[in-house]
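agent> Task received from the user: take the single chain below, predict its 3D structure, and emit structure tokens. No templates, no multimer pairing.
agent> Plan: (1) validate residues, (2) run structure prediction, (3) serialize to tokens, (4) report one or two observations.
agent> Step 1 OK, no nonstandard residues flagged.
tool_call: predict_structure(input=
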Amino acid sequence: MLQNIREKFTGTFALVVLVLLAIPFVFVGVGANYNFFGGSSAAVVDGEEISLGLFEARYRDVVESNPTLVSADEAQRLQVRRQILDNLVYEQLIENYLNEHGYRVGDEQIVEAIRSQPEFQTDGRFDREAYNAALVAGRVSSADFERSQRAGLRRQQLQLAIAATAFVTPAEYRRYINLIAEQRLITTATFSPEMLTETIEISDESISAYYDDNPTLFQNPESADIEYILIDRDEVAAGIEVTEEDLAIYYQENQYRFLQDEQREARHILFMLGDDEAAAEAEAREVLARINAGESFADLAREFSDDTGTADEGGSLGVSTLSENPGALDLAIFAIEEGQVDGPIRTDFGYHLVKLERILPQAALPLERVRADLTNEIRERDVDAAFRDLENRLGEALFESSDIRAAADAIGAEVQEAEGITRSGGGPIGANQIAIDTIFSDAVLSGQTSSQVVELDRNRAAVFAVSRYVEASRQPLEDVSEQIRGILTADETERRLRTRAEALLAEVEAGAEFRGAAEAAGSAVSEPLLLSRQDQSTVDAPIFFSVFAAGKPTQMQPVRELVRNNTGGYTVYSLDAVLPGQPQSIPLAERDSGKLFRAQNSGFADFSAFLLELRESADIAINEDVLAASDFLQ
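)
tool_result: status=success, residues=634
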């Protein structure tokens, strides 16, 4: 199957899949995967619906992480929405395949995956407080996050299973080495502006003719002087304070969002493996028998435990939640009842006996643990409400009177001014396309009325009025004559250099010896240079790319080419030999690393092609109305 579908893999599809593969382990916004608030479907994949709510939630995540989309035009937004829906379709295709073929991920794998994520660690060890804080900040429950991790691990299983079939044959890799380590021998002759000794004279008639022949050049752009009212979220935020009463009410209303998982208090006795694992296990069973006979677990921990950090405390592990202790020990603690003893349990550290002292049921995190996050949430909520309220009041004031100063007085705002705004922007608006389009709209540009309230980005809204408009005009000839003289001088310099370079190329192609002819033409001739594909920084880029794109020379017929270089002149080069790469010249470790890299690339291509095959054979219905609908940005 893979051999057939590899051929269907394309570069464009690779980009889609690259985005898709990044999704499973992204933490921020994971909660959006489980917020279904839509009433219709964005797509249906083999009978499985992709909800409108999920689609819009994913779109919001993308926009929040890419603020420039706020000012994107309708075509660009449609392209982004289609890309997002395509990714969701591929995710659903994978889920359907995994379900059909029985891919499973065990609880221990989930625990290990979460514990190993750097954002949940402190000093290299899993930190439960960091984990809980991240869940609160991401507005996602532990159950939902673990569900997303399980889905990601299942997808990873599939990807690795397919990638494992990829391989690179010795012949393929040797051809790759021959190409990547190839060397090319060249000599160059460079014609630069500095070599021209003659003076280039540009007449006034030529300058005047150039000016007349190019009527669209040398324009003073149209411009507008404006008056505007700006509503800035940061200024609104400066007047917002969060009180203790606000915090207490919000905490009570949102406790369900940051429930702390069930906790368990336990003790353990560790018997380290040492050189004789069987002896460690036997000792653990002997101590277990003494515990079952009625001896104190804590006293035996003080006497026998090899965990020096807990032995003096009677083996106390304190209070923990699931996934805080080594895998098997963790699962054992959460599988027994209060007062029960279990073991021996083997981990990488050794054999454990464990006793569960008490169970603390699930409860909300204390207010102090989430104070900072909730304060930020309340502030954001109140700032957003105040910002929207100010926008609405300004809109209502403009409805009552289109005069911008009257509207400003109605909301206690200041009318600001800026001069010389062009269709490229300028002044306080910068290059904000929404502001530019508003200012240069017919209604506003006429000066008869102010604009409506427009959102410039997530944090700013504004109203614009044009106080003065200046039409585009052409600069006088006398103001641009020296600029034209420079353009014509540069053109003539380049023409003369190209003429000399073309004459040299014709001469050497007719049989002249390269170095002698180049020196006679007055060019700067280099010594023979052996180039590899890693030497790009040592040679002018146009020359480098031309050399490695050229055909191979023969012993009797070098390859000669003319290239416009990056220094304002021309270069003629002679490619005299091509030396294939030699695998034995590359250290073995680098060769092995390169082969693995190519195999991984091949595996990625196989997986991408596999997904394309799934899509081609699936029954997929796309809701085009959802894609074309006005989104929440508009």
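agent> Step 4: summary for the user.
Residues 59 and 272 are 52 Å apart (CA to CA).
agent> Done.
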